[in-house]
């Protein structure tokens, strides 16, 4: 999978994408992420990419021209490398569709994604109308820009690409993959300050352990997220 990201703050994306599983995914060439500075397509030598909004009001709006030029340039690059262009052009925005595991699963099957990070009051509506295929929010709160949201999306999607995680089953047993939260986990020692690991996990009886884990998952989901429990197919 290849992901291009357009941003005015490329530095903000460097660290989250260069450690741990995201680092490994890129080292294994299963994922490539290219971060592009929107100012490379600025409208003047001052690096301008935003302007006052029509109708008045506080806050700047990201202009059409730099964004349109950046998107078209990257689209052309992706077509030339024989991959057929972007599967999705995604704008990270608090008024987008809420990211969940189902969306992450679907996006992990794509080949080329373009992510656009907004800033200030957002991007000119005409860019939204003419270029985007998807608008994604990571939650009902407003961040200072789309970069952290883009990093969240890349992480959630990137770890699902086959081969990225060492143990293939570990993504399958994640919370949300089967509409259930993950069960509690324990490691050594078996007793710490008189706090004991449940006996069943030490029993060596895999059938019983699996049953216990399932019961715990159901209990945890009922207690904490009853809203996801009845969704039959939504996360698949
Ligand atoms: N940009 C600002 N806030 C955001 C959010 N909650 N999700 C996605 N992009 C954003």
Report on this model:
The longest helix is centred in the last third of the chain and has 19 residues. Helix 1 packs parallel to helix 6. The protein has 236 residues and is α/β, with parallel strands linked by helices. It contains 10 helices and 9 strands. The mean pLDDT is 94. It binds adenine. Adenine binds next to strand 5.
Bound molecules: adenine
Task: Indicate the percent of residues in helices.
Answer: 25-40%
Poorly predicted tracts of residues: none
Instruction: Tell me the fraction of residues in β-strands, as a range.
Output: 15-25%
Explain the layout of strands and helices.
Layout lengths: L1 E6 L2 H8 L2 H8 L4 E6 L12 E3 L7 E3 L1 H17 L7 E11 L2 H7 L4 E6 L7 H7 L2 E4 L9 H12 L10 H4 L18 E2 L2 E2 L2 H4 L3 H19 L1 H4 L7
Parallel strand pairs: 1-2, 1-6, 5-6, 5-7
Antiparallel strand pairs: 3-4, 8-9
Helix pairs in contact: 1-6
């Amino acid at each position: 999978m290849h992901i291009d990201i357009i941003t005015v703050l490329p530095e903000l994306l460097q660290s989250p994408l260069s450690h741990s599983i995201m680092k490994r995914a890129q080292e294994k060439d299963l994922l490539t992420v290219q971060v592009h500075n929107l100012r490379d397509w600025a409208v003047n030598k001052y690096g301008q990419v935003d302007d006052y909004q029509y109708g008045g009001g506080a806050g700047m709006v990201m202009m059409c021209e730099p964004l349109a030029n950046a998107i078209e340039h990257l689209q052309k690059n992706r077509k030339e490398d024989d991959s057929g262009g972007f599967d999705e052009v995604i704008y990270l925005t608090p008024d987008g569709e809420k990211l969940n595991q189902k969306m992450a699963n679907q996006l992990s099957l794509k080949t080329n994604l373009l992510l656009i990070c907004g800033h200030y009051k957002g991007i000119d509506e005409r860019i939204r109308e003419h270029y985007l295929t998807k608008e994604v929010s990571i939650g009902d709160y407003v961040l200072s820009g789309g970069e952290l949201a883009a990093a969240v999306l890349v992480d959630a999607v990137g770890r699902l690409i086959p081969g990225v995680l060492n143990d293939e089953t570990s993504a399958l047993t994640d919370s949300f993959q089967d509409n259930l939260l993950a069960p509690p986990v324990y490691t050594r020692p078996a007793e710490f300050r008189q706090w004991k690991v449940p006996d069943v996990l030490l029993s060596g009886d895999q059938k019983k352990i699996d049953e216990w884990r399932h019961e715990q998952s159901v209990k945890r989901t009922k207690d904490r997220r009853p809203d996801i429990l009845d969704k039959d197919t939504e996360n698949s």
